[in-house]
Amino acid sequence: MLPPLRVGVAGLGTVGAAVLRLLERQRRTLELRCGRAIHVTAVSARDRSRDRGLDLAGLAWHDDPVVLAQSPDIDVFVELVGGADGPALAATRAAIAAGKSVVTANKAMLAHHGLELAAAAETQKRALRIEASVAGGIPIVKTLREGLAGNTIERVYGILNGTCNYILSRMEAEKISFATCLADAQALGYAEADPTFDIGGFDTAHKLAILTSLAFGTRVDADAVAVEGIETITLADLQAADDLGYRVKLLGVAKRTASGIEQRVHPTMVPKSSAIAQIMGVTNAVVVNADAVRETMLSGPGAGGEATASAVVADIADIAKGDLSPCFGLPASALSTLERAPMQTHEGGYYVRVALHDRPGAAAAIAMRMAEMQISLESIVQRSKPGSRGAMDAVPVTFITHATHEGAIRRAVAAVVADGHVAEKPQVIRIERE
Ligand code: HSE
Predict the structure, then answer these.
(1) Which ligand 1 atom sits closest to the C-alpha of 160?
(2) Residue 141, H or E segment
(3) How far is the CA of 198 from the centre of ligand 1 (A)?
(4) What is the Cα–Cα distance from 93 to 20, expressed in whole angstroms?
(5) Ligand 1 pocket, residue 161 CB under 6 Å
(6) Domains, the chain
(7) Which residue in 197, 243, 267, 319 has a CA-CA distance of 20 to 30 Å to 235?
(8) Would you say the CB of residue 268 lies under 6 angstroms from ligand 1?
(9) CA angle, 246 then 251 then 255, to 5°
(10) Would the pTM count as exceeding 0.90?
């Protein structure tokens, strides 16, 4: 039998503590599954005195994660410190340089430095494993890298941020404000330390950049993701979406198109009958469209200590079994430069909500502007129930378009604003169909 795999864990927050508990709870099963024991031998965290409900006796303690990363007493460095740069990056680089395999949940670091780290790990003939970086406990990284290895992938999209899905789900179901829902998500521990990462779409963008690399064999390129958050979504949008047979979700979408690969994160209307529309609360889901499998969807907890620890422990188990396959599915040198499709060429349906001055010809003028841009309308709804009015003399009117181009819709909306028929900046939400 192989000697035990010695693991050092940096970061003993919710996830780190859960990893230690899970490794202990599954000790015997993992030993049988991996053909060797897995022992945590050393840890690193900022505060030695904090009671984490863990027995840390017998483990070496390093205040500096870089020192842990270089320790001769570990074979695997588990990075749960967080942050794109700083100590997490320094320790990960140091661990790989010292010949350790690395397991990380750090989506921000991977989105910005994934290629460098993957290449370094390959040079050292060590593994870099990243399952916990995307969608918490859902094994989507392994699915793309291994389970779908025989496919050409056309599109991967999903709900990748539990905080945003929790906020949108509660706003829709309970008709309560964005601010109240965000405060509750923070209290429940779903949100990032800085929640603008969640609601601004940046957390989703980091995860999407990683999925894109895995799906399309491209170099991770977080700067090529077009990002819009959910801050502008109102109860009126959720109500209008509901009336029209849609639900609003923050989606990350990566898609192969004639003009390159689209990577976009934005609030999205999805048909209420679609599988992704059923995903509520903190749950995440990822849909993959590919030539052989056609479509597959994985859903599960996207945040939380034990769910994320499930992914970390699976990665440690792979390393214990000797899996050194490349982090992003292809050798780092074979990953191609991502050819970015400009947002202006995006093709799809759109929802446009305007607060229209209540006077003859106003709605017709908007329809005319759409027609000028060759935009075909699927539906127009004007509702003037008490309480649904926007600015003083304005009524909310929603338009759903058939497939058109982003450039056309932007030009049409700009013309509508210039015409002076609307009382507020129009709301534009893209529609993603199955
Ligand atoms: N803040 C993240 C979320 C945690 O809400 O999904 C997991 O990355």
Answers:
(1) 6
(2) helix 140-142
(3) 7
(4) 23
(5) yes
(6) 5-137+322-326 (3.40.50.720), 140-301 (3.30.360.10), 346-431 (3.30.70.260)
(7) 197
(8) no
(9) 110
(10) yes
